[in-house]
Amino acid sequence: MELVRSLQLVAGEEVLSIAGLILLLWAAWAGDKAARAISIATVAALTVAALIAAPALCGAAMGADTIAFGGQYRADAFSAFGKLLIYASAAVTLIVAPAFFDRFKAMRAEFPLLVLFAALGMGIMVSATDLLTLYIGLELNSLASYVLAAILRKDERSAESGLKYFVLGSLASGILLYGVSLTYGFTGTTSFTGIHAALAAGTLSTGAVFGMVFVLAGMAFKISAAPFHMWTPDVYEGAPTPVTTFFATASKVSALALLMRISLVAFGAVPQAWQQIVIFAAILSIVIGALGAIGQANIKRLMAYSSINNVGFILIGLACANQPGAAAMLIYIAIYVAMSVAGFVAILMLRDEDGEPVESIADLAGLSKTRPGLAAALAAVMFSLAGIPPLFGFWGKFVVFQAAVQANLVALAAIGIAASVIGAFYYLKVVKVMYFDEAADKVRGKSELAHGVLLVIASVFISPLGYLLTNWLHTLAGNAAAALFHF
């Protein structure tokens, strides 16, 4: 009966696995000409998996009824929150990808399959409650992601980004695995709840501290937090823009959710041992992200530094080491995903008359005169990322700072608020170029209908209308955070 119950709890992963195997055979037989049909089928599979996960979030699922496979997996409200964002981000990636790859005649049948298997790995990551499950999900995601970054084989930038991602990602996986080995060696278990109990029952040994540091260092790479951020600008710039969208949304959600479960569950008994590490990474990410973005001339590199900066703000919620801080993190992550989708879809729509991407910020000069709607949407994204009210991005920063103040981390909140002013400079620089510089008239390509629809939906969410969803978002984030602390 336990096996049957476990199989019921992993129904979403089963759907994605079976769909992946069937579509893999389809791709092998039909070839690249079936790429669009396979993409549509993959979006359908992701939608079914999301519908399976949604009741757990809405019903605030937690406790023993959510445990599968002897405690290695949890299908609780927290994991459901992460999975819904991951599957939605993966679906957006598949919707925007065909138009981009068609320009290079490079839409391959394996692209949607790689996205599907990466999303499957991410789903396992956010449900992992054991170090072994964690590593299986992480590697399934990583192996697909390395190939996605280099999928444009004839593009030197794409090949370079894939190679850098692979080399540095392998190093980070090694660091993480070493930390996992040390943690197991000094606690005697790989279960998150077992590690929590072992750390709570005894004196924190030096070996366990080293294991904790190595695990957090490996996870810092995955979320592109400073000082492990060096791969992010190159990979974001070199990878195809739909892949960059996937990395900035789904990959970020899964890694942050996994970091939350490791820190607050496995290491939650000794928060004093890792809080200072998180606070240091948060401040460093905020500062490096803000200062690094100032001199960028490429819009995708600017968004990469923006992601580093925003990860720093999200980590402020983790530094609180309590349930309100976790709920604030989840709210910020949800809003950040919407902002990233809007930003990268807008970047995909920046094309010249030959259909080539326009990525230079200087080439956006006077965009408000030639493409006013696109310029307005991109300006809304920049203002929202900067946290300027009344756009919805302000609310994400507000709830995180509020949680920090309530947790007596006033100095950290003050540093974050001050650094937000620095960040506002490079966001406003983009707006200034679009609205006040002489028109360069480089962006003349036609936009895809699907891109326009997604941009409108995401822009409405991050607009002041997004505040109408605050009660609903707070309820869902509260359910997820409560499930995370119910173990």
Structure overview:
This protein is mainly alpha-helical and 487 residues long. The protein has a domain at 270-486. Helices cover 75% and strands 1% of the residues. The chain has helices spanning 2-9, 11-30, 35-58, 77-102, 110-127, 131-149, 156-187, 192-201, 206-222, 232-238, 241-266, 271-294, 299-319, 323-348, 367-370, 372-386, 393-406, 410-436, 449-462, 470-484; strands spanning 67-68, 73-74. Strands 1-2 form a two-stranded antiparallel sheet. It starts with a helix and ends with a helix. InterPro entries: NADH-Q_OxRdtase_suN/2 (IPR010096), ND/Mrp_TM (IPR001750).
Q: Give a count of the beta strands, DSSP E runs of length 2 or more.
A: 2
Average pLDDT for all residues: 91
Large-scale geometry: globular
SSE run: HHHEEHHHHHHHHHHHHHHHHH
From the helix content, strand content and strand pairing, which structural class follows? mainly alpha
Uncertain runs are none
Distance between the termini: 22 Å
In short:
This protein is mainly α and 487 residues long. It has a domain at 270-486.
